[in-house]
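Re: the request from the purification team.
They wanted to know what the chain is likely to look like in 3D before they choose a buffer screen. I agreed to run a prediction and write the result into the notebook, where they can find it.
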Amino acid sequence: MKATGPAAFPYLLVRHELRLWASLWLWAARRTHDAAAGGSAFGYARGQGAMMGGFAFVCVVESVMMSVLLRDWPAVHHVVLVLDVYTVVIVVGLHAASVVRPHVLDPAAGTLRIRRGIHVDVRIPLERIASVRRELRTTHEPADGELALAVGSQTSVTVELAAPVAHVSFFGRRREVRVVRCHADDPGELVRAVERARAGDAVP
């Protein structure tokens, strides 16, 4: 039985770190995670690439500056250097996780899998989709029954459901959602592919 509450935090932290390292390996190997052989993958990380690259650059600059400031305190310098380097690894790993875990449409299994890095993975049965449309949003107010997975502060695809699906948060909180908003590098293609799959056509 899995631990819940505060007791689950060490387990969740270890799982998070392992998934980050696995994402880095998959990114280096130019592979994706759990992309169905007969399905289609739709990326969403392009919109955050520049931001994450800039964040990583700032972390590197900060590491160099701290190294200069702490050069007369070698013990402290080594500890801070390790933390700074690992921070850069985490930033790169988070971007890698978004690259190697794309949205996946699998008509054979009848599912649309909406993901955001290692933190969100929602499987939506195609028969539960009431409508799917291209819709650009840059603001997302919290709403009951809605899940907004913004990338670069925006979503570009809205999926409305006829019946709710479960979303489990990083800390194990479960809630039912009827509207899922996500981002895709090519939102039009994702919308068209889902519509073809719902109509029973093969997705190329």
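For the purification team: The two ends are 42 Å apart (CA to CA).
Please add any questions underneath this entry.
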